[in-house]
Queue: 2 jobs
Job 1
Amino acid sequence: MSKLAVIAGDGIGPEVVAEALKVLDAVESRFRSRVEIERLPYGAEHYLATGVTLPPAEMQRLGRDFDSIFVGALGDPRVPGNEHARDILLGMRFQLDLYVNERPARLFDERLTPLKGKRVEDLDLMIFRENTEGLYVSIGGIFKQGTPDEIAIAEELNTRRGVERIIRHAFEWARANGRTRVTMADKANAIAAHSLWRRVFEEVGGEYPDIRRDTRYIDAMAMDLVRTPESFQVIVTGNLFGDILSDLASILVGGLGLAPSANRHPGRVAMFEPVHGSAPPMAGKDVANPMAAILTLGMMLETVGSADAARAVDRAVRDAIAAGITTSDILGGKHGTRAVGDWIAERVRSV
Ligand code: IPM
Ligand code: MN
C-alpha cells in the first residue's frame, strides 16, 4: 500500500486538498486501490504557534517513510517574510534532492486559451524545471542593508551533474512518452556560465538520436511560447526560468487554477503540489478552483502505479470543464470549490 503524507498548508490549501482527497476516496472505491494517508500540521498556523517550520526529524521521515507528499499551498500574510514556506517547500525540494520539477501545460478545452485560433492539439507541453540549483540556492547575502551603499548578491549555481541529470530526465521522459522534440532554454548570450547548459544539452541529446533538440534564449522562448506554442513539446530549463515559464505556460491553458506539478527524484519520495499559491484573499470562501489540486492528485496516482485511476481523474476534470462545472476563474463558472470537487468525485466513481 502506498503511503502519502499530506500538508494542507495555508490559505486555500486546505480547501483544495479536501477536494483532491474527496476524489482520492472515489478512486479508491472505483479502483479498489488503497493509499494510507498521514496528515501533517505544518504551515503558517503551526509556525506561529510553535516557532517551528518543519522539524529536521520530520524531513528525514518524509524522505524515508513515504512514497508521496501532497502539499496544498504555503504562504500567509501573518508571516510576511514567508520563511515557513521557504523552509517547508524549498526545504523539501532541496533536502530531499527532488531535482525534477515537472509542470505539464495541456489545453483541455479550446475556450480556455487566451491565444487566438489555437486548438487543443496546439498546446501540450511538458516543462522540466531544474529544482535544486540555480538562483534558488541562497548563496550570497545582503551587506549594509538599508544604507545607500547596500549590496545584495545572489549567486547562480550550475553544476555539471545537476544540469546533466535534469536534461537527461527530459530526454528520457520524451522517449518514454512518444515525444519527438526537446527544447532547452537558457541565457547563454549574456551569461557565460550558461554555456554549460548548451554543452551538456548537446552531449546528452546526442545519445537520443530519435529526438530532435533545439535551444532558445529565455527571452525568445517566452515570446515563441505565446506566438507558436505548437512548436514545443518538452522544455527543459533552469530553476528561475522554469518558475517563470511555467506560470506563462499555465495561463496559455486556462491559468493557475488548472496547473499541477510534481517534484521528483526517480526512486525516491515524490512531492506533489498545485502550482498556485495560497491566495489568502480567496481562503474560506468556497471560490478556489480545486482542479489544479485534483490534477496534481492524478500525477501522484500515475506515479504510484495507478495509471487507470490517473486517466479517470484527468477525464473527469476534462468532463467537468466541458459541462461547465467550474469555479469563476474559468469560463465564467458559477460553482463553488466543493461543488466542483463533488461533481468530479462522482464522475470518477460512476463513469
Ligand atoms: C513555485 C513557487 C515557488 C517557487 C515560491 C513559492 C518559492 O512560485 O512553486 O513556482 O518560486 O518555486
Ligand atoms: Mn512559481
Job 2
Amino acid sequence: MLERPLDLTKKAAEGAEALGLRTVGDLLEHVPRARREARTVAALAPGETATVLVEVRSIAARPVRRRGMRPLVEATVADATGPMAATFFNQPWLAKRYEPGTRLVLHGKYEGRGRFRVANHATTDEAAASTEEVSHYAASEGLSSTQILSLVAAARPALRDVVDVLPARLRARAGLAARDAALEAMHFGADPAEVESGRERLAFEELLLVQLALLARRSREDTAAAAVALGDAPSLTERWLRHELPFTLTGDQQRAVETLRAELAGERPTQRLLMGEVGSGKTVVALFAMLRAVEHGHQAALMAPTETLAEQHFATVQRLLGGQSVTLGLLTGSTPAARRAELLARLASGECSLVVGTHALIEEPVRFRSLAVAVVDEQHRFGVRQRTALHGKAPQGRAPHVLHMTATPIPRTLALCEYGDLDQTRLRERPRERRPPATHVVSGERERARAYERIAEEVRAGRQAFVVCPLVEAGELEDGVSTAAQARAATEEFERLRTGELRDFRLVLLHGQLSHREKQAAMAAFAGGDADVLVATTVIEVGIDVPNATIMLIENAERFGISQLHQLRGRVGRGEHDSLCLLCGPKGSARLRALGGHDDGFELAEIDLRLRKEGELVGTRQSGASQFQLARMPEDEALLMSARGCAEALIAADPQLSQPEHALLADRLAALYGEIAAHPIAA
Ligand code: ADP
Ligand code: MG
C-alpha cells in the first residue's frame, strides 16, 4: 500500500512532486509542521484568515456576469455553531463533487456578514465539532496544506503497513511506540500531548540513526587497522612534565593527559576531539601525546590549516620543549626547496621525530619512517580527503593515533551530533589567573559619552583601546560580500572620532579593504605603542596580541553573534592590567546580557543555542541541528542522550549491524548515509 503512487490531478501531482511526495508512503512520512486551531463559524471575525471544519448543506453554481469568468460555486456550510455562505472561485465542478452532507476543511478569509471566501478546500472525515485543531503541512504551489490533510486522511489505513526499522527488542526496552502509531499521533493526534509523543518517538529514531552511523563508522575504524601501542613507562614525557614546563598543568589538562596516556597505550587508534578556547592550553596536551610517540622511538606530526598557525605552533612547541632534545621540523608551502628535501629525508629515515606543518605534510612525497601520533589543529578546516591522506602516512597496515583540536566551543548536544564518532575532551579551565574583561552594555547618549571618557582615561594612563565598528547588517559575516560596506563604516567612524570624541589621541584604522602593507603598518603602529586607539572592523578577531590594550568598545554589538563578541573581547585583558569591554546596544538584549554575565565560551555557546531557538538569530553559522526534521536542539537533549545510549549498546553487540534483526536498521542507514564503510571519520 505504501508504494502505491498518489492519485492526483496533474496540477496537484506537480505540487506533490515539488514536495518530494510520490507514493502513499511518502505522504504518510510528510508529517505536519504545526497544528492550527480550527475556528468555529460563530467565532470568525471579519477579515480573519482561518481554517474551519464544516458540513455542506446546499451547493450550487452561479453564473458570473463578467465575460471570461467561470461560474462561481456558492455553498451553505455549517458547523455546530451555525451556517455561513462559502464561495469557491473558478471551479464550477465542485457543485457536483461536494454534495450536501460532505464534510469539508475550508481555509480562507471570512469577509464578514456570513460570507467566507475559500482559498483551499478538501474533504475530511474528521467529525467537525470534535476537533479543535487541524494539522498544518508544508505545502507547495499546486498542493495546499488543506489538500494534503485530506489526502493523509484518505491514506490513513495504509499506516498499518508502515515498516518499523527499530528492532522489537529495543522498542520494548526503551518503551517506544510503534512507528505507525507515532505517525498516526502526529497526523491525527487528538491533543497537543499526543502529537508531541509522536514527534518524540520519530525524533528519537532520527537521533538514533545518526548516532548509529557515527558509531558504526568509528567501530569500523577501530578494527580496520591497529595503532602502535605506546605503553612503555614514560621517560621523556615524565622529565618534560616535571622539569621543562614552566607551569603546572591545570586540572583539565591533567585529566586530558591521563586520558591520553591510557588511550595511547592501547592498539585501538585514538580518535579524540580536544576542545578548548584559544589560550586554554591545548598545545601542551597535544605535545604530551606527540612526545609519547617520540619516547617510544616513533614519530609525531601536527598539521595546522595555515602557514601562520603552523609557524605559531612550531614556535610554541619549541618553547615548550625547553631543554629536551627532540629533533623538530617545520614544513609548509614556503619551506625552501633545499631545506624541504633535507627534512623529507630525515622524516623518512626517522631522524626527525616531530614535525609541525600545513597541508604540505600530507603531500605525496612526504614519508615517515613510523608516524604514530597525528594532531590536527582546527580539524573542521580540513576535508575528509586530507585527513585520510594523513592516516595514510602511518606505516602500512597501521593507523595513527589522532588528536583533533578545535578552539570553537560547540554546545554539547551539537558536538555529539556532529562529532559523535570522536571521543571528546574539553579544556574549560583557564591556565593563568587572567581576569576576564569586565563587560557592560552601553545604551543611550549619556552612557556613550561616558564610554568615550573611559577610553580617554585608559589612554591617559598609558593603555590602548580598540573601537570595533558595526556590521552593516546582521548576518553579513556569513556571505562576506559586504566587507566593503563594513570598511566604509569603519572609515567613517574613524574620521568622526578623529575629529570628535577622541581628537586628542593617535588613531589608526584597520579594515579588510586595506592593502597588506597598510594593514601591517596599522598593526605595527598599534602593537608598537605608536597609536593609542585602533579603529577596526572584525579583522582584529584574528591574531592581534597587544597586552597593553585594556579597553574595547563595540558599536552595534547586537548585530554580532555571541561567540563572535566573546572572541572579540578576548583581544583585551591579555596583560597585567584590568580590562573592560563596552557593548553598545540595547540593554534588553539577552545576548548582550549573557556576555556580561559569563566568561566561559562553552557556557556562552549553550546560551547562544538556546537563544537561537527563541528567535534571536544573529551572527555566525551554527550547523548541526539543521540536519534533523523533527529533533530539536537543545530541547531534545534527553532524547539525544538516550538515543546515544541505545546506539552504543547496539554497536557493542553488533558492530556492523549484520544480525538479521538489525537488517532493516542497516538498510535505512545505508539509504540515509551511504555505505557505512565508505567513509573515514568525517569529523
Ligand atoms: P591553545 O593551543 O589552547 O590556544 P596553548 O597551549 O598555546 O593554548 O597555551 C596558551 C598559552 O598558555 C601558552 O603560552 C602556554 O605556554 C600557556 N599555558 C598553557 N598551559 C598552561 C598552564 N597550565 N599554566 C600556565 N600557562 C599555561
Ligand atoms: Mg594554540
